[in-house]
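Why does residue order matter? Because the sequence determines the fold. Keep that principle in mind as you read this record.
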Amino acid sequence: MQITVLFTDPLFLIVLVWILAAIAAAIWARRPRTKVAKVKGPLMKQIGKMIGETEKGGKLSVPAVRTRQEIITRMFESKMDAIGLEPSKDGGYIPVSTTPLARFLKDRGVPDDTIDAILAGLMEEKQETEVRAIIDAAADSPEINLVGNELDKAKDLAVEEWKNLRASGKA
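Structure:
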C-alpha cells in the first residue's frame, strides 16, 4: 500500500519524470553519431557495404572495377552504334588523334602510345627548339625509324601542331 501512496504524491511523480528524462537523455547521447543515409546507386551501395564491413571488423570485399580504357571503349562503342557506324578494329576501338603529325607518325609505324606521348610533350613546351628536340629524342628510340627528309618533315609538322595548340590556347 505504501507504493500507491507514493504515486499519489505529486512531488514523487515530478521527481520520477525527471529521472526518466535523464535516463532517456543519457541513452540518446550515447547513440552512434554516424548518420544512416539512404544510399542511391550501385556505387554508393558498395561504399555503404564496405563501411559496414569495416565497422564490424570483417574482411573487406573488393568491388568490381572497370579500367578507364574499358569505360571509354564502352562509351565509344555505344555512341558509334547509336549513329549506325561500326568502330574500326585496327587500332583498338578508341580512335587515335588525327592531327597531321599523328597521321604522319602512324603511317611510319609508330605505336599509338608513343604518338600520344609525343603529342603530350608538345603541349608542355614553351619554345620551338624544344619541340624540335622532342622529335629528335623520339627519333633516337628504336621503335621510330625517322631519318633525313622524314625527320625534317616530322619536326615541321610538330612545330605546326605546337603553333596551332598555342594559338588555340590549349598549351
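Residues 96-168 form one domain.
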